[in-house]
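In response to the reviewer comment on reproducibility (Comment 2.3), we provide here a single inverse folding case reported in full, input and output, so that an independent group could reproduce the run without further information from us. The structure tokens appear first.
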């Protein structure tokens, strides 16, 4: 990650009044690559929605396609919601309300858990949709500063994202690199929060090729409701028993439960 150590050191050295005139401003896009969830916490309550679309082709024929969504509503460590969806269906969800945790897999019922700490740890290690989506392009991401603007009421800096040239290597290593495959294209835009260096919005598309295999990846990321309370409720009581069965029978086919993907 180019110039990252220097950028982080410079950012830390800047006082609340800003960097001294003779010091260049840190590159926020590169600093954002080092963000931890502790950095994201500085935004306060917010909603993250990130979708990764993946397509794989072999000899130009589509062989697989999937859409993965990471949905995080963050209030604090005692109140958050983490969901993962594949093609619009929930495959995993965790709620933490008043320090108590509930876990759900697929369409199964919510299960209360004795300890919320494992799910706090999970959030700390799985929140980064950018790294997850662009793993194949790591060390090949270049940024061009396009100036400043405002996102969700916060000063932010906009960047054009592109594919950086590969590092030159000896001929023998270059042949091995070609056989291993690598990125061939990357383009998009990124908005980075000026105060925290957290990514606020992004839309990036990339292509990776090895022989006759081509992978196309699109990331769309958006943080919204920054500073607004995220109302996260504990799961309601499970409907069941004779009364529940009678209600279900009266509803008939028209009374089907809503899709899990629409769950608040």
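Designed residues, in position order:
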């Amino acid at each position: 990650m180019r110039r990252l150590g220097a950028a982080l050191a410079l950012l830390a050295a800047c006082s609340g009044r800003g960097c001294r005139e003779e010091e260049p401003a840190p590159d926020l896009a590169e600093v954002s690559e080092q963000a931890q969830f502790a950095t994201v916490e500085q935004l306060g309550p917010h909603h993250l929605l990130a979708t990764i679309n993946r397509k794989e082709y072999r000899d130009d024929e589509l062989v697989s396609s999937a859409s993965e969504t990471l949905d995080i509503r963050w209030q604090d460590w005692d109140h958050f919601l983490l969901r993962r969806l594949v093609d619009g269906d929930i495959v995993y969800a965790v709620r933490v309300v008043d320090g108590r945790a509930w876990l759900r897999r697929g369409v199964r019922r919510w299960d209360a858990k004795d300890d919320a700490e494992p799910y706090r740890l999970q959030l700390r290690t799985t929140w980064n949709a950018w790294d997850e989506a662009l793993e194949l392009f790591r060390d090949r991401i270049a940024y061009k500063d396009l100036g400043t603007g405002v996102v969700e009421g916060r000063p932010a800096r906009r960047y054009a994202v592109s594919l950086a040239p590969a590092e030159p290597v000896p001929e023998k290593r270059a042949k091995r690199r070609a056989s291993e495959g690598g990125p061939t294209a990357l383009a998009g835009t990124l908005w980075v929060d000026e105060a925290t260096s957290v990514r606020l919005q992004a839309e990036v598309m990339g292509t990776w090729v090895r022989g006759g295999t081509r992978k196309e990846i699109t990331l769309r990321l958006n943080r919204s409701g920054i500073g607004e309370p995220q109302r996260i409720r504990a799961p309601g009581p499970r409907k069941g028993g004779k009364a529940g069965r009678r209600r279900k029978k009266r509803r008939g086919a028209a009374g089907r439960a809503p899709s899990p993907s629409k769950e608040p």
